[in-house]
Amino acid sequence: MLPTYCPSCNEQLKVKCLHCENCQTEVTGKYDLPLLALLSTEDQQFIIRFVINSGSLKEMSSELKLSYPTVRNMLNEIINQLKEDEK
Amino acid sequence: MLNPFTRIAGWQAFGIGLVFVLITGITGTFSNVAFDGVIDMHLVQKLTVAQSFQFLTIDLISVVAIMTLTGFIISKGFRIIDILGTLTLSRAPLIIFAIAGFFTISPDKNEILKNPYIIFQSVSFIIVSILSIPVLIWNIILMFNALKISCGIKGNKLGIAFTIAILVSEIISKILIYNIVKI
What we know:
The complex is a heterodimer. Chain A is an alpha+beta fold. Chain A has a domain at 35-86: Arc Repressor Mutant, subunit A, CATH 1.10.10. Helices cover 45% and strands 13% of the residues of chain A. Chain A is built from 3 helices and 2 strands, in the order ββααα. A two-stranded antiparallel sheet of chain A has the order 1-2. In chain A, strand 1 (15-19) and strand 2 form a beta hairpin. Chain A is elongated, with a radius of gyration of 17 Å. Chain B has one domain. Chain B has helices spanning 10-31, 49-74, 80-90, 94-100, 109-114, 123-151, 155-180; strands at residues 33-34, 42-43. Chain B has a two-stranded antiparallel sheet with strand order 1-2. In chain B, strand 1 (33-34) and strand 2 (42-43) form a beta hairpin. In chain B, helix 2 packs antiparallel against helix 7 (155-180) and helix 4 packs antiparallel against helix 6. At the A-B interface, helix 3 of A face helix 6 of B.
């Protein structure tokens, strides 16, 4: 999993360097991590499954074998997390 | 046991809950256990099938109505069917009270009025009363989780809202039972 927080001071990490494996070019700078990358692996998986299921909570609940309101609450948690990270 | 609503809610919970309510109502009729309040039940001298189901229906309507109102106040979005379903299934532990009624001998009402201490002479009544406490707590925990999952709320807001809602629904159910069933 992509590290998003500093293991030393717990501050949010920035992207400093990107590397091309084909021509070995390196792009350095100071880039923000994508908002979705800041989510936990489980939350990212949830988002992927949600998109694959055409955004249907009903489909998600039958796939995860969880009740509809539980899945909706999980989505609300992610939305709140994204709103927090967006600030 | 304490939170089945992470897996069951909506119509499915309503269907299962309704089966429990039906069995509770029939059993309660024969064991003379009246569910005359959302979190209240009493041993009575005589109970008809109609009265038993009137009590259970009023209890359910009261708690669902008040919890739905609570949901509208404190939650951003929820489905009424989830409240109805989860709260109906929350009534499942009541079946234990209905069965316990068969093993309880309650002293006569008039004798209790004459001498309230006579109640302590009924061993079965005391044992069932003590054993009923964890069942009642289980019932309340289920209702708490029903509101929590259905409305997606947590923390102090949930605790305060649930406490007020359960007390208000108990009062409303008592008023309705007193005015409609008149037992």
